[in-house]
Specification:
Length: 160
């Protein structure tokens, strides 16, 4: 069960609530009060905890169009890439959320934008990686890591 003001974790029998929900639930007869009564009735021993409002680790800060263009301008074929960016920007204007449209396109095509250690080629241009390339690299690394563990285990068994 999920709501912006509360979340119920069935597995741990715990209700997480916001401060606003807690304040409203303290008043007899409010919808929040009734929700807690019902949940307590349905889930004996339920714990109630304050909802954690810390930002998500993977939450990205606002990325401006200017920042996107600046990053693209560091790429080898910047003129072609900036022309593509401008076409995507123009297409975004008919979308329900133009900014989200452009940002999604940018992060899919420049997935290493927020990399703390960008890789540059010999001429000093940023080496761009798409989301698909990064996902493929991760999958390959996981496969190699799993194979390495399997070989190490087999080697240990052979030695014994």
């Amino acid at each position: 069960m999920k709501n912006n003001a509360y979340t119920f974790d069935h597995e741990n029998n715990t209700l997480f609530i916001t401060d606003a929900f807690k304040k409203a639930a303290a008043k007899v007869g409010t919808p929040e009060y009734k929700i807690i009564l019902q949940l307590r009735k349905d889930n004996p021993g339920m714990e109630i905890k304050k909802m954690d409002n810390t930002p998500k680790k993977n939450a990205q800060p606002k990325l401006s169009y200017k920042q996107m263009k600046q990053f693209i301008s560091l790429c080898r074929d910047k003129d072609e890439r900036l022309a593509t960016f401008n076409r995507v920007y123009a297409l975004s204007q008919v979308q329900p959320s133009p900014y989200h449209y452009v940002k999604s396109w940018f992060l899919n095509n420049y997935a290493n934008y927020d990399d703390n250690n960008p890789i540059f080629d010999a001429d000093g241009f940023v080496i761009v990686k798409t989301k698909a390339q990064i996902d493929a690299e991760k999958a390959t690394k996981q496969y190699v890591d799993a194979a390495t563990v399997g070989v190490e285990e087999q080697t240990k068994e052979d030695a014994a």
